[in-house]
């Protein structure tokens, strides 16, 4: 999915190193959705004035609303614990209420390619 998105963005000159960040959007809740039915999307932040010629499954979309944001430095094996912290600890300690929208990860730096490397990742939880 990421390769297709980057290829598309490169062809259309949408990548700006100062602005462009990549996201993974989790369209389904893994605690209530069977694994074979889980849907995940990838997205990219691009300049506001960019002109996009949509193609296939790649389209323009926007994310809005209020989010709780956790900032993490994670290895590949630590992502599950970070999500658990955001939903089980942070959400309840802050007395926030989750809203019905897709949570996502924003990769501040490139995601880790192996279990040793770490990356900076922000986890966004939609809240009311």
Quick rundown:
With 128 residues, the chain is α+β, with helices and mostly antiparallel strands.
Structure overview:
Pfam families: GyrI-like. This is AraC effector-binding domain-containing protein. Residues 1-128 form the AraC effector-binding domain. The chain is of the alpha+beta class and 128 residues long. It has one domain: Multidrug-efflux Transporter 1 Regulator Bmrr, Chain A (Alpha-Beta Barrel). It has helices at 2-11, 79-93, and strands at 21-26, 40-45, 67-75, 104-107, 118-126. Strands 2-1-4-5-3 form a five-stranded antiparallel beta sheet, covered by helices on one side. 5% of the residues are buried. The model has no long low-confidence stretch (mean pLDDT 92).
Relative helix content: 10-25%
User: What name goes with the CATH superfamily?
Assistant: Regulatory factor, effector binding domain
Cross-sheet strand order for the largest sheet: 2-1-4-5-3
Helical segment count: 2
* Largest beta-sheet characterization: 5 strands, antiparallel
Specify the CATH class.
Alpha Beta
Give the percentage of residues in beta strands: 25-35%
Distance between the termini: 30 Å
CATH fold title: Multidrug-efflux Transporter 1 Regulator Bmrr, Chain A
Annotation, overall tally of beta strands: 5
* Tally of structural domains: 1
- Named CATH architecture: Alpha-Beta Barrel
Low-pLDDT windows of residues: none
Give helix and strand order, one letter per element, not per position: HEEEHEE
Shape designation: globular
Radius of gyration: 15 Å
Round the mean pLDDT to the nearest integer and report it. Answer: 92
- Could you say which structural class the secondary elements and strand pairing correspond to? alpha+beta
Protein name: AraC effector-binding domain-containing protein
Domain AraC effector-binding: 1-128
């Amino acid at each position: 999915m990421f390769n297709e998105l980057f290829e598309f963005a490169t062809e259309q000159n949408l990548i700006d190193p100062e602005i462009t960040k990549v996201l993974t959007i989790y369209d389904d809740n893994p605690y209530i959705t069977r694994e074979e039915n889980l849907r995940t999307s990838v997205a990219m932040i691009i300049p506001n004035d960019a002109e996009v010629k949509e193609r296939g499954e790649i389209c323009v979309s926007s994310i809005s609303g209020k989010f709780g944001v956790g900032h993490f430095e994670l290895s590949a094996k630590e992502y599950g614990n970070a999500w658990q912290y955001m939903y089980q600890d942070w959400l309840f300690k802050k007395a926030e209420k989750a809203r019905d929208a897709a949570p996502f990860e924003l990769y501040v730096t490139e995601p880790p390619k192996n279990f040793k490397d770490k990356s900076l990742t922000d986890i966004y939880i939609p809240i009311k």
